[in-house]
Amino acid sequence: MEQDDAILPNSIVIAFQKGLNFDETSKVDDSSSIGTLRIQLLEEEKPGWIVDGQQRVAALRSVKKEHLPVSVIGFESDGSAEEREQFVLVNSAKSLPKSLVYELLPKIEGHIPPKMKKRRDAYVFLEHLNLDAESPFYMRINTTTARHIDSANIKDLSVLKMLENSMKDGIFSRFQKNVEKATELLNNYWSAVSATYEEAWDLPPNKSRLTHGVGIVSMGYIMDTIGYKLVRKGRVPTTDQFARELRVLGKDISWIDGGWHFSDEMIMPRS
């Protein structure tokens, strides 16, 4: 970037909410004009929000050249909801951390692709699990904004996968339109899991197969199986009911050490 012939090939996309004035000098067609865009600079707040190009802007800050042409695409925003929507739509197709994109989804109220909508619905319940003090997942889920918390050691994508599986064709699909009952179902089942396998639940994924992604997703399938057996007339099974069914599996499961003996030929992991 310090070289004389250096260029920044990609545009930076900025959303502006206010303080814009456009002086048209000539008209190209019905939807395009040429002119001068004047942006009002305020001392108390910045005029725009970077939707795409954060890393490029960070690189520009360290450049010591006095002049460097930069292409900028700007649009006038109706508010922060539209800015979040554009941020997700632009960055979901790029190598931005998926967790960051997914964490923004519940804040978006406008139109998003169907696949993203399903993920948004699942992430709403993930947030309930992570932020509800009564939840066994309370502050345990490692999201982009919770990475600095020591207890947040269960991957958000693992919990998200478990929720999406159950929302598609599991027990959760019966309750997901009722947030209160859906949250109760999740809290009751995973409270039973955490109590039944307390030692394994309290350990991080690198020491416990239960809190690892495979364990979370697998126990999600168990939730569906038990849930279908116990659910009666729209009533959510209690923690005690779930715990009784989990006892059928037994407490001596190799969550922390040992191997899984599926057959004489199939033992995982092999020593």
TrEMBL record:
Transmembrane segments: none annotated. This is DGQHR domain-containing protein. The lineage of its organism: unclassified sequences, metagenomes, ecological metagenomes.
